[in-house]
Amino acid sequence: MQGRNGILQLVLLLGLELGLEGALPPPCDSQIYCTGELLRRVQMAKLYQDDKHFVDMPLSMSPDQVLKDFNELLSSNEGYVSREQLKSFVTEHFKDPGQEMDTWIPQDWRDSPKFLQNIVDPKLRAWAEDLHKLWKKLGRKMKAEVGSQPDRYSLIYAAQPFIVPGGRFIEFYYWDSFWVIEGLLLSEMPQTVKGMLQNFLDIVDRYGHIPNGGRVYYLQRSQPPLLTLMMGRYLERTNDIDFVRDNIGTLHQELEFWRHNRSVNISHKGANYTLNRYHVPYGGPRPESYSKDEELAALLPEEDARESLWAELKAGAESGWDFSSRWFIGSNYLLDIKTSQVIPVDLNAFLCQAEGLLASFYSILGNMPMAKIYQDAQAQRKVAMQALLWNETLGSWFDFNLESSQQNHGFYPTNLSPLWAGCFSDPAIAIKNIKYLEDNKILTYKHGIPTSLQISGQQWDFPNAWAPLQDLVVQGLAESNSTRAQDMAFQLAQNWIWTNFAVYQKNKAMYEKYDINIDSGEPGGGGEYEVQEGFGWTNGVALKFLNRYGDRLTSGSGSMMFSTSCLLLALLLLGLLC
Fold it and tell me: What pLDDT is stored for residue 518 in this prediction?
């Protein structure tokens, strides 16, 4: 297609102008799961409520045979295939999703991990025990045939068992796994964590980067780069330096992917800086959301504009925030998404911590030249973040727009992520961050920190709140040297625990996101699919907060406690208590 080639050339030229270098990640070449007429026909016929269903279906025969049979079907009907014929074809040539994996109970799961003893509230302790048990429900192991016949599956083969997020997400996901791993380590399951890390390391060796998730249709994009951070958490708990030694080159290789393919050189106020962005230089609809992407792009008149839109949607998916007004330029509408023109605070905070960790790993291993390389890289990143992302007047960091050379002063919890990453430890910065939260009235939201203050209908906007974003704020404040920041961290953690616990008591389920605009807190909504149960990272963050504050957290809601206190005070004032 001339238009698609044209936009790819344009993106490559743009990359060269911005100072990018190195090879691009390989696109998926599957004519069934990633591109092709069969994919287009099935997804646009909307045979399934969720487009992801079809591209997760294993083949019943070789892909060559499936494509041969489909081409014969097209020829016999002069190109016309009815919805019923498509449905019959898929039923004959594909199997239902999920059959390629078995439920797996981790071998290192144990009944009573030590952190439970630190939880004073008996209701919260019982709930934490339930969350700990959920690891057994979310464990998966791939069947051997996924490895021996990979062309019949969209799954990317992983030799080690792993924990999935839950719901429609029946494979592993990159950034979800960071908070899952933090929870698993609290549950004293380092063997499971090591297996998950080994899967990611194997995938970096195979592809040069970690895809968004464990499917071939995710290969064009990654997700927030947290592998080195996962290794750091594992090393803290196990002191398994031999595992780090064996894989230090692969950790370096993954950060090289981000340096070569996601770096931008920025000239600002007479100085030059290098920071990172999310950027996927491939057009075409996302296979797992094909019909939605096609319908949105149909609103644009030119093919190059449609291809550019699809590339920006993929970059938004790479960010993990799919989707948010954070990526929209000039409006509050998805059609105006320009993710690649944003320098995100959190991406650079993650990389800042990763560079510090790799410097530490290399130093421990005695490789001082490589340690110095990463020390210098982190130092340069801090200077760039301070110059481009920090705002002294507003007291926080902000995403930087490449087109306007201006900061986006909208509220997002990720604005505080450099504090979470430990890259800026000045106590004065924590105090400024507190004032920033107060100025945006974030403490008035009693059920969690909102993802943004914008209402767009997208799932990464108000009124949704997400577990990892709570952690980005709470941990950063908690580990500062400010007592006031530590007190605020506890209150924010308490609010989130009240919400998670209340919804769990009502529905006996944990969710990927929560609606915090409702008095009692409810599962979240918006976006491209129904809210999902499970849920890996929500469980991990809840366990993390319960471990940190177990001696103080309570199971009663804030409003209930306030009402009771008011009643007691009123009775005292009336002299009705002895």
Answer: 79
β-sheet with 406-407: strand ranges across: 342-343, 400-401, 406-407
Structure confidence at residue 425 (pLDDT): 82
CA atoms of 11 and 142, how far apart (whole Å): 37
Of how many residues is the chain composed? 578
Q: Identify whether 64 is a catalytic site residue.
A: no
pLDDT of residue 557: 54
Q: Give the per-residue pLDDT at 32.
A: 98
Residues 137, 134: Cα–Cα separation, whole Å = 5
Q: Which of 360, 323, 354 is nearest to 339 (CA)?
A: 323
Instruction: Report helix, strand or coil for 244.
Output: helix
- Edge to edge, the sheet with strand 162-163 lists 101-103, 139-142, 162-163
Burial class (CB in 10 A: 0-12, 13-18, 19+), 207: middle
Indicate the pairing of strand 139-142 with strand 162-163.
antiparallel
513-515, strands of its sheet edge to edge: 464-466, 513-515, 522-523
Q: Is 9 helix (H, G, I), strand (E, B) or coil?
A: helix
The residue from 56, 288, 322, 355 that is catalytic is: 322
Residue 232's nearest CA partner among 353, 376, 147, 351 is: 353
Q: Strand, helix or coil at 444?
A: helix
* Residue 103, SS3 per DSSP: strand
**pLDDT tens column, 409-462:** 999 999 999 999 999 988 899 999 999 999 999 999 999 999 999 999 999 999
Does residue 366 come out as left (phi exceeding 0), alpha (psi in the -120 to 50 range) or beta?
left
Report the alpha-carbon distance of residue 554 to residue 127 in Å, rounded.
Answer: 12
The answer to whether 400 touches 387, Cβ cutoff 8 Å, is no
Query: Residue 28's pLDDT is what?
Result: 86
Known catalytic residue: 322? yes
DSSP states along 181-207: HHHHHHTT-HHHHHHHHHHHHHHHHHH
List phi, psi (to 5°) of 514: -135, 145
Please give the Cα distance from 554 to 302 (Å, whole number).
57
Instruction: Choose, from 307, 346, 512, 522, the residue flagged as catalytic.
Output: 512
What is the spatial distance between Cα 327 and Cα 205, in angstroms, rounded to a whole number? 31
Low-confidence ranges of the chain (pLDDT < 50): 1-25, 558-578
Cα separation, 95 vs 93, whole angstroms: 7
